[in-house]
Specification:
The protein is an alpha/beta fold and 703 residues long. It has 19 helices and 27 strands. Helix 1 packs antiparallel against helix 19 and helix 9 crosses helix 14. The longest helix is centred in the last third of the chain and has 48 residues. The C terminus is likely disordered.
Length: 703
């Protein structure tokens, strides 16, 4: 009998152990990212799944000016905000989100497609029905169906859900001024999106099982949560600190750094002069931007067309001018090529350069986006004020365009003027040029007040397929031709001038400019090559053979330097060295100085408000005279290295072994005490049988 019971106890012990252990891990779905098995057991073993930059994660950070702060932030000492991962995919789901009755309010981390980003953030800000710890924005290329290609998905996301501003216009949506407040927001890369969406779907399935079960022996089922760390140092440690936070106070507390960098200027002067800014003759300025704030996600700053089409055209135009004047006529008016840093932050680059420029300015030409690949327009548009009286540069552009069409074919770009009213758009660098004797112009590939490019100002403005290199090169030749016509001395021999201008329509020279533009596009736009690996950088050893610095690594995104301007940690003793310069600033300086060697002077120019001073003794920034000199001081908050997103289980790695141990203990105790009770019962039963038997035997004897 004992042996039978022990067999039963052993079977029961095994049954309880298996039941309790498996109950904690049922419905464990599998998910593959880069052939890596993703399930609850893996999650418990690793304790958590951090989503890092390798997964394409980009956090919304905090920026400040002298009046207020923008972006996303939590207090300096606040731990990561945690919540159950919930996906909101449609407007109907967003409308219903948070309306169901809950016994107690539970924090959620909401993940949503990018096309829903604006709506979700608005709901989070306005609704009191639901507690949202953080918002995760999904990459549109993570889930593509057969009916929608990558371009369609990116276009839908860009047009519907993205904050973007067009610097050449007075667009109402200013990406750098988006203020989400104390809700961390992160943009997920493709792999990170798939992991988070898997977690949200698992939560849906597990909650359905939990609701459908009348009794849940183990209590609440296992769910997946996200912890999002978005603490910003400049926000301080208390709500009062946050109220007082601005760019001046955070610089005093050393919790932020000024936004800015270094502009680059190259001046083509009269033959005997080799120094910048020393000519009495009024200069012709050709300008472009080095950087762009494309979104509230600093690490996702792109700009194939928005930034780099104009910058490539700018660099090729400088090289064309150099090639034509090196053995040609002297220049009567200096031609200055200026690439400005930090323009999206109160035009700090152009303001600072013009503050330090003592000479006169004849004409300013701002090269805007000129290389939109899908543009059907066959014209270069010249935006000017309707009351402008000096049309010299526009006329020379038209002359060069006519020469191109006559020699190279009718498919060459025409030049058309666009009137934009009395005022220059507030985001244009032309506003920094207040004392101009001639015209102020902006060149673009669109004839309205905003770009036709649907990807403009978004992270999807990336890759060679977004730009037209041939068109960019043609704009370069148009700009160089017009600038040379304005600058060459009238008394030069006619034959020399004709030789210079005829070269602009020479087929071999045209192909050379297209090749140069293609090479620069490889450096600035192609994510497979990038700044460090492209032929120009390799040929001239632009970045040296040393490993990437931390600053360079922060600005490097898929081999392409981010078009976000960044911050200035300190000012080196000699700013004319590569020290403390961003990769894009170093590249543009090296290109201009090498292609214009012997005919021009190239210098770095500080792009920071002039009231900022760097104290070398204390290694800290000081502010003089507040917002004097017409500058707005912009800063970016420091943040912890822990910033990011982590997926976690609400039961964690320890639950399964504890559940198994409990099962073993319960089954062991059951077997032990059950066996003891059975033995006692059998012993009592045996004693009773013996007594009855004795009585029976006694009775028989009496008889």
């Amino acid at each position: 009998m004992k042996h039978e019971y022990r067999s039963f106890s052993l079977l029961f012990f095994l049954f309880v152990s298996i039941f309790l252990q498996n109950h904690s891990s049922h419905h464990a779905a599998t998910f593959f990212v880069k052939a890596e098995r993703m399930d609850f057991k893996t999650l418990r073993k690793t304790r958590s799944i951090p989503l890092t930059n390798e997964n394409g994660l980009s956090m919304c950070t905090m920026t400040l000016n002298t009046q207020e702060m923008f972006g996303c932030y939590t207090n300096q000492n606040e731990n990561g905000k945690r919540g159950k991962i919930v996906r909101v995919e449609t407007e109907a789901q967003l409308e219903a989100f948070g309306t169901e009755k809950r016994g107690e309010k539970e924090a959620n981390v909401v993940t949503a497609p990018m096309r829903m980003m604006k709506q979700v953030l608005k709901k989070v800000e306005e609704s009191k029905d639901v507690l949202v710890s953080a918002v995760l924005v999904e990459h549109p290329l993570a889930f593509l169906d057969a009916n929608k290609g990558g371009d369609d998905a990116e276009k839908e996301a860009a047009e519907a859900g993205f904050y973007r501003g067009v610097p050449e216009s007075d667009s109402k949506e200013d990406a750098k001024r988006v203020n989400v407040g104390q809700t961390p927001v992160a943009f997920l890369g493709v792999n990170a999106t798939r992991k988070v969406v898997w977690a949200a779907n698992e939560n849906v399935k597990r909650e359905k099982v939990q609701k459908s079960s009348k009794r849940n022996f183990m209590g609440r089922d296992e769910l997946l949560y996200a912890s999002v760390d978005g603490a910003m140092d400049a926000a301080g440690k208390t709500s009062e600190d946050m109220k007082r936070a601005n760019s001046i106070t955070c610089l005093e507390k050393r919790t932020c750094l000024p936004i800015g960098g270094y502009s680059i200027a190259t001046a083509f002067l009269d033959g005997f002069s080799r120094y910048l800014y020393n000519e009495s003759a009024p200069s012709i300025f050709v300008t472009a931007r080095l950087d762009k704030t494309t979104s509230m996600f600093r690490d996702e700053a792109r700009g194939a067309n928005a930034v780099y089409s104009s910058l490539i055209s700018f660099l090729v135009a400088a090289e064309v001018v150099n090639d034509l004047v090196v053995d040609g006529p002297n220049l009567e008016k200096p031609i200055v090529f200026a690439a400005f840093a930090g323009e999206e932050y109160d035009l700090v680059g152009s303001k600072r350069m013009m503050e330090e420029f003592p000479g006169l300015v004849d004409t300013v030409v701002e090269i805007g986006p000129v290389g939109f690949a899908s543009s059907s327009k066959d014209a270069l548009y010249v935006h000017e004020q309707y009351n402008q009286t000096d049309d010299t540069f526009e006329d020379f552009l038209k002359v060069q365009s006519a020469a191109n069409r006559e020699t190279l074919g009718e498919d060459s770009l025409s030049v058309k003027e666009v009137s934009r009213g009395v005022e220059v758009p507030k985001g244009s660098s032309l506003n920094s040029f207040t004392n101009v004797s001639g015209s102020r112009l902006t060149l673009t590939d669109y004839n309205t007040f905003e770009s036709d490019d649907p990807f403009y100002g978004t992270m999807f403005d990336s890759g060679l397929d977004k730009i037209n290199v041939k068109r960019i090169a043609e704009v370069s030749r148009l700009v160089a031709g017009a600038a040379l016509r304005m600058s060459m001395k009238d008394k030069e021999q006619f034959a020399v001038k004709e030789d210079v201008l005829n070269k602009l329509v020479d087929n071999d020279f045209v192909q050379q400019t297209i090749a140069t533009a293609s090479e620069l596009a490889e450096c600035l736009v192609d994510p497979k090559v990038g700044l460090r690996k492209c032929s120009f950088s390799q040929k001239y050893d632009v970045f040296g053979s040393n490993a990437l610095s931390e600053e360079d690594e922060a600005n490097e995104t898929n081999n392409i330097g981010s078009s976000y301007v960044g911050v200035v940690q300190y000012i080196p003793e000699d700013i004319q060295t590569s020290e403390a310069k961003s990769p894009i600033q170093r590249f543009v300086y090296e290109h201009l100085s090498r292609v214009a060697n012997g005919t021009a002077s190239t210098t770095y120019r500080l792009a920071l408000p002039s009231q900022l001073k760097f104290d070398r003794d204390s290694y800290a920034w000081q502010v003089r005279d507040g917002n004097a000199n017409g500058y707005e001081i912009w800063t970016e908050s420091n943040w912890s290295a822990k910033i990011g997103v982590t997926i976690e289980s609400n039961k964690g790695w320890f639950f399964e072994p504890i559940a198994t141990a409990c099962a073993v203990v319960i089954a062991t105790l059951f077997c032990f005490f059950g066996e003891r009770m059975l033995e006692r019962a059998l012993t009592r039963g045996g004693s009773s049988s013996s007594t009855s038997s004795q009585k029976l035997n006694s009775g028989m004897d009496l008889d």
